Amino acid sequence: MFYQKNMKFIKKRFPHLLPFLEANQEKEEIEVLSSKTGLLVARMKREDSKIYLNSFYNPEGEAKRWAEGLREDDHSCLIICGGGYFYHIKEILACNYFEKVICYEPNLGILRSCLTNRDLAEILSNPQFFLISSMEHKQNIKLMNHFLGHKIINIRFEVLPAYQKLFATDIENMKKEFGEAIRNSRVNLATTNAFEEHWLENAIKNLSFMIESPGVRHLFNQFREVPAIIAAGGPSLEKNIHLVPAIKENAVVIGAGSSIRGMHRNQVLPHFLVAFDDSEQNAEIYNDLDLEDVCLIYSNRLYHGVVSHYPGRRMHMTIDAEKFSELFVHQSGGYEFGTIRSGFSVAHVALDFAFKLGCNPIILIGQDLAYTGNKRYAEGMIASAQQYLTEEIELPVGAILTKDLHGEDIVTDFELNHFRIWFEKLIENEFQDKIVVLNATEGGIPIKGAENRLLKEVIETYCQQERQIGEKIKKCYDGGLQELAKCNRRVLKIPEQIATLVNEAVPKINNLLERIQNLRKQNFVLEFDFYEWENILNPIILDFAAVLNYKEYEILLKELKATRMPATQIKIDALGEITTKEVYDLKLVGWLDILTETKSYLHKMGKVVQDYQITGEMRHGNEKQKIGSPN
User: Fold this and answer.
1) Residue 568 — φ and ψ, nearest 5°?
2) Consecutive sets of 10 residues in the chain, 631 residues long: mean pLDDT of each?
3) For 215, which DSSP code?
4) Is 31 within 8 Å of 43 (Cβ atoms)?
5) How far apart are the C-alpha atoms of 556 and 560, rounded to whole Å?
6) Of the residues 214, 280, 544, 560, which has the fewest C-beta atoms closer than 10 A?
7) Is 38 exposed, middle or buried (0-12, 13-18, 19+ CB in 10 A)?
C-alpha cells in the first residue's frame, strides 16, 4: 500500500539499497498482524517458534519506553541493529536525543514488508536518519563513515531484543567490523583530521588577533532586505561570476572559503570571506591573493597562519559548536562576538551569516553539489584539491548518480549530497517564511526550498538599487573596534591560565595512573575477585572525573572527550562480561589509555602555550599597542 511512496525516499536518500531491494525477492516467513492497539506488527518464524519484531500488545508504548531508556546518554550518534516496523526509530527521532541515527536492518524481507505496510515518509526524509541493510559490512562501514563524519567514534550501539534472537551471528559480525572501523577512525583522526589536532594551537595563536577583531554581531541586522550573493567553489561558478562586479554596491557579496580562488581568477573580490578550516593547507588557498579589500570573517579554529598574515580587515565569529570563545567572553568582561550556526561546509555557515546580517533574498552561486562538467570545483582551485571524473579514474567513494537542474544524469557523492540535505534542512527549519533563498548556480543538482533562477534575471529583479555596501561595512567595523577597545586585559592572560591548569592537572593524572598500575599488579598476583577490583577501580574513575570537573577543562578538553575517549570506552564495553583476570586487565589497560591520552593532551596544551610565549607571539603583552587598535 505504501511501497511506491516509500521507495521515492529510498531512491532519493538511500540509493545504495535499490539493487538489493529490487534483486532480492526470496520469500520470507513473515506474518503481518494487527496488534492489540490496532497497529500493524510483523512476526517471523524461526524453527519451531514465532517471534514478534515489536510488541504485539502496544508497539508504540514499548517503543516510547525503550527510547526513554536512552535519555541519559552522552553519545551524539546511535546505531540501531534492527528496524522492525520502525516504531522504535520514530520515537528516537522524535526525542531528538542523538544528532544522528543509523538503522542497520539485516533482513531485506523485513525491510520490504515494512516499506509495503507502513508510511515511513517522515522517518526516511529526516536528515538525522540513515538506513543500511544486508550488503557487505565493509560497504556499510564506508556509507556510515560518510554519514557520521568525524562523529564515527562517538556512537552507541543498541540491538532490538527480537533481533538478538533472530540474527545474533550477523549482528555480532557487524558490531565487530564496526568496532574495528571505530578504532581505525581514531587513528585516522589523530593523523589526518586537523580539526581535532590543531584547534587549540590555532585558538591560542589567534588570541592576539581576536582582541583586535570586532565580532560579527556588529553586522547583525545591518543589511535588512539587502540581497546577498554567496559564492561557493563549484564548477558552475565560472558561468556567471563575471556578472557580480557590476552590482557589488547593490548586494552583499560573500565568498565561502576556497571559492575565493575561483572568484579571484575571474577578477571578482567579495565584501566578506568566511573561513574556519584549521588545516595548514589553508595557507595555500589564500597566500598568493590580493585580499586587502576583503573583510575576513573567521572563527578561532582558522589556521593561525592565515589570520596572522591576512592583509585586510578581520572580524571574528563564534561557531555554535565551539567552546574556546567562552573563555574569551568570561575574561573580557562579557564582550560577545556573535554566534553563527555551524554546518557541514563553510557554505552552510556563510548562509547563516547572510541571514544574521538581515539579507533578503540570499542568492547561491557555484553551489553545484555535484561534478558538473566532470569536475568537483571551479578552475583556480589549488591543484591538490581539484577532482576530475574520467574513464581512467575510479568514481569517488559514495558516488551517486542523480539528476541535475535540467533533468540530465550527473554524478554527486555522499558528502556533497549531505551538503544538499543540510541546505534543505536549514531552509525548511530556519529560513522558511522569513527570507527567500534562490539558487542561481545554473548547474549541478537542485536544492529543495531554493528556487532555480538565472543570475542575470535575479540581478535585474533584486540588485538594481545602489546601497553603499562598502561604506556600511566600514562603519560597522569601526564601531566594533571602539567597543572592543574597552575589552578587559585579562583576556591576554588566558594562555597563562591554561599553563596553570596543565600544571595542576598533570600530577593528579600521574597519581591515577600509578593507582591503576598497582591494581594491575594486584590483579595478577592475587586471586581474581571482580567485585573487589571494581571497588578499587570505580573510585579512581570518579577521581578522574573530579580532576576535570571545572568549566575550563570542559572547554579545553572538549575535542578529546568527543573523539578519542569514546573510542576507548567502546572498546572497554565490548569486553562484555568479565570472568578472568586476563580480560579484566584489558579493561584496566583501556583506562590507562584514557588517562595517558588525557595527560598527553594536557602536555600538548602546555607546549602550545610555552612555544607561543617563547616566540613572542603574544604581541599585546607590552604597552606599545592598545587593545582593540587597528592594524
Assistant:
1) -70, -40
2) 89 84 69 92 84 91 89 75 93 87 91 93 91 76 69 74 86 76 49 50 84 94 97 94 94 94 91 89 81 94 90 92 70 83 90 97 96 87 70 68 92 87 88 94 96 97 95 96 79 77 89 94 89 90 80 65 64 78 91 89 80 56 34 36
3) B
4) yes
5) 9
6) 280
7) exposed
pTM for the structure as a whole: 0.64
SS (H, E, C) 254-283: EEECCHHHHHHHCCCCCCEEEECCCCCCHH
Q: Which three cell numbers stand for residue 443?
A: 548547474
Cell of 271: 565584501
- Do 82 and 108 touch, CB atoms closer than 8 A? no
State the pLDDT at residue 152: 54
Tell me if 383 sits within 8 A of 365, measured CB to CB: no
Tens digits of per-residue pLDDT, 514-570?
999 999 999 988 988 888 888 999 899 888 888 776 666 766 676 566 556 666 776
Handedness of CA 305, 310, 315, 320 (dihedral sign): negative
Residue 594 grid coordinates: 584514557
What does the DSSP assignment read for 405-423? TTS-EEEE-HHHHHHHHHH
CA triple 43-44-45, angle to 5 deg: 130
- Judged by DSSP in three states, 588 sits in helix
Looking at 247-399, which runs of residues are DSSP E strands?
Answer: 252-256, 272-275, 295-298, 314-316, 318-319, 339-340, 362-365
**Nine-digit cell string for 309:** 598574515
